[in-house]
Amino acid sequence: MIPLYKVTDKFYKVIEVNPSDTAYFKRGCVYLALMNNRAAIMDFNKTIKLNPNFAMAYYKRAIALLFSSTKKAVKNLDKAIELKVENMAMAYYIRGGYKFSLSNYKEALEDYDKSLSLDSNYSLLIILAQKFITN
């Protein structure tokens, strides 16, 4: 099995031959797994430039922005949700967390409620957040 950090080398070669949105997205995902958020963001930016309707690229870019720009992360999640990203419940849940960290408690609760309505697997975490917000 190839170590994850060497997979990026493979994607450099793929991108040289075919610089597609999918290739940039997949390499961005590898960078994200390696916690190289800056490189991941750059690849997700290229993905979105090539395909502005690539919902999962906005979602993954929001994850990569976690430690650098919460407001930009929220905007990316807004776009991912608008484009109907695969895991809508998770997108709402994560956006709720970002809004919570920005002290937008009412909006955070709305996102948590929406997440819960889409997938009850988040119920315990959301209930805990709601209790914290309302106390």
The class by helix and strand makeup works out as mainly alpha
Rg calc: 16 Å
Number of strands: 0
How many distinct helices? 8
Question: Main β-sheet: number of strands, strand sense, barrel status?
Answer: none
Overall 3D shape: elongated
Task: Give helix and strand order, one letter per element, not per position.
Answer: HHHHHHHH
Mean pLDDT: 87
Work out the strand percent: under 5%
Low-confidence stretches: none
As a percent range, the share of helical residues equals over 70%
From the N-terminal CA to the C-terminal CA, the straight-line distance is 50 Å
How would you describe this protein?
This protein is mainly α. Helix content is 77%, strand content 0%. The longest helix is centred in the N-terminal third of the chain and has 14 residues, at 4-17. It is elongated and about 55 Å long. The mean pLDDT is 87.
Q: Topology of this structure?
A:
Layout (H helix, E strand, L loop, with lengths): L3 H14 L3 H13 L3 H14 L4 H10 L5 H13 L5 H14 L3 H14 L4 H12 L1
Give a brief rundown of this model.
The protein is an all-alpha fold and 135 residues long. The chain is built from eight helices and no strands.
Can you tag this structure with a few keywords?
135 residues, mainly alpha
